[in-house]
Design brief:
The chain is mainly alpha-helical. It folds into 2 domains: about 260 residues, no CATH class; about 110 residues, Metalloproteases ("zincins"), catalytic domain (Zincin-like). The protein is built from 16 helices and 4 strands. The chain has a 4-stranded mixed β-sheet with strand order 1-2-4-3. It starts with a helix and ends with a helix.
Length: about 425
């Protein structure tokens, strides 16, 4: 058996295992939510009505159902790009239009991303104007949705071309390209975090300083106690697009800012808002953002080093339905850099999904730590009441399947969080 055939079998096996586990977990989630739909769990009795509980169950099942279809189509799409020769045909087409080199690679990468973006549009439209609208969450209009699409495409094009062009040029110029690309990626991430709150986010939403003087004074006092340096406290017009509520802090250095959705300001009391902010500040106090950046940096370096080795193996391409060209001349070697990036991104989910439960567990642990910090700075009772209201208003299920949650949920279940808060 050739190495190319063996690689094809390894990829197909990993992909089938990924699909099997994913569909099994989704089936368990639907069954768990459906079986508990008729009655509100005892610990939430008096806090969540039966109609609200059933809405959350139906909303969860609808989202899982959409994900099942989306994953099935994505699977067929993946097979079309790889083993059925779609990416190879696109590569040959671009080579017929442009000579091998950086311009051809950029064109190939842009064409691939463009086709994928177009294929994703129907899903985005359906989720916004059908699924979210059916449960009363969508507030966006077709005009706003299209405007957001154009803006996000332009921002992605500008930033993506800058990063992709630099990465592909380095990949062709240096044998140890993965190290230099990693450094550029780190710089790109940090720059994006600095740019996002003051330059990118305002392209999509309006951010106004918090006008409630009493609430602002409470929040400023809390921020001072926590040692958090903020560039301001802002309210975002989230209600323009969705009825969901949230709060977050974003940015680096002096660009950090605290942001509340206007829907959250309207839904919660001042005590509850302060408790929710204390939770977000708990992430800052425990350094969760920097810990995740550090782990992400290490993993991305390992991934790029792996890609650096794979990109030089003929079987990596031929085993995935692509005809490699770098064996012909040194000039044509560059035509495989974009192919390597695309192939690596396509096969990633089939191999990296095993790390998902570990990542989710780590994230849930951070949420518990942030909850405990909030309870120490404000009131655990106010945080608990805020969480109950947010779970209810956002139609979050109270009865997730434990295995599905272990794999996919970045936040603990409502029952787990409230139990911890009661203990605190």
């Amino acid at each position: 058996m050739s190495m190319s055939t063996l690689w094809t079998l390894i990829f197909a096996t990993a992909l089938l295992l990924y699909w099997a586990v994913s569909f099994l977990l989704m089936a368990r989630q639907v069954r768990s939510v459906a079986s508990a739909r008729r009655e509100v769990p005892a610990q939430f009795s008096g806090h969540v009505g039966l109609a609200e509980h059933q809405k959350a169950a139906d909303y969860t099942r609808a989202k899982v159902g959409l994900h099942v279809w989306r994953m099935a189509v994505s699977g067929a799409w993946l097979m079309g790009w790889t083993l059925l020769g779609g990416l190879d045909s696109l590569n040959q087409l671009t080579l017929s239009l442009l000579p091998a080199g950086l311009a051809q690679q950029m064109f190939l990468l842009g064409a691939f991303l463009g086709v994928c973006a177009l294929a994703d549009l129907p899903w985005s439209w359906y989720q916004t104007f059908r699924l979210e609208a059916r449960f009363g969450f969508n507030r966006s209009t077709y005009r706003l949705w299209f405007t957001d699409l154009v803006k996000s495409s332009l921002v992605g094009l500008i930033l993506g071309l800058a990063f992709a062009g630099s990465a592909l040029w380095i990949m062709n110029a240096s044998p140890a390209w993965w190290w230099w690309v990693w450094l550029i990626w780190l710089g790109f991430i940090l720059l994006s975090m600095w740019l996002y709150p003051t330059f990118i986010a305002p392209l999509f939403n309006k951010f106004e300083p918090l006008k409630d003087n009493l609430l602002r004074e409470r929040i400023e006092s809390l921020i001072k106690r926590c040692g958090f340096e903020s560039g301001g406290i802002f309210v975002m017009d989230g209600s323009q697009r969705s009825a969901h509520a949230n709060a977050y802090f974003t940015g680096l250095g002096r660009a950090k800012r605290v942001v509340f959705f206007d829907t959250l300001i309207d839904a919660l009391s001042p005590d509850e808002i302060e408790a929710v902010l204390a939770h977000e500040l708990g992430h800052f106090k425990h350094g969760h953002l920097y810990k995740r950046l550090a782990v992400s940096a290490v993993l991305s370096l390992l991934a790029l080093a792996t890609l650096g080795w794979l990109s030089e193996q003929l079987w990596f391409y031929s085993g995935l339905g692509v005809t490699p060209s770098f064996v012909l001349t040194d000039q044509l070697k560059a035509s495989n850099d974009a192919l390597a990036l695309i192939l690596f991104s396509l096969i990633g989910p089939a191999f990296f999904w095993t790390a998902t439960p570990l990542s989710a567990w780590w994230s849930r642990r951070h949420e518990f730590e942030a909850d405990a910090f909030a309870a120490s700075q404000t009131s655990g009772r106010h945080l608990a009441s805020a969480l109950l209201r947010l779970y209810r208003d956002n139609a979050s299920t109270l009865t997730p399947d434990r295995w599905y949650a272990a794999f996919h949920h970045s936040h603990p279940s409502a029952a787990q969080r409230l139990h911890r808060l009661r203990e605190a």
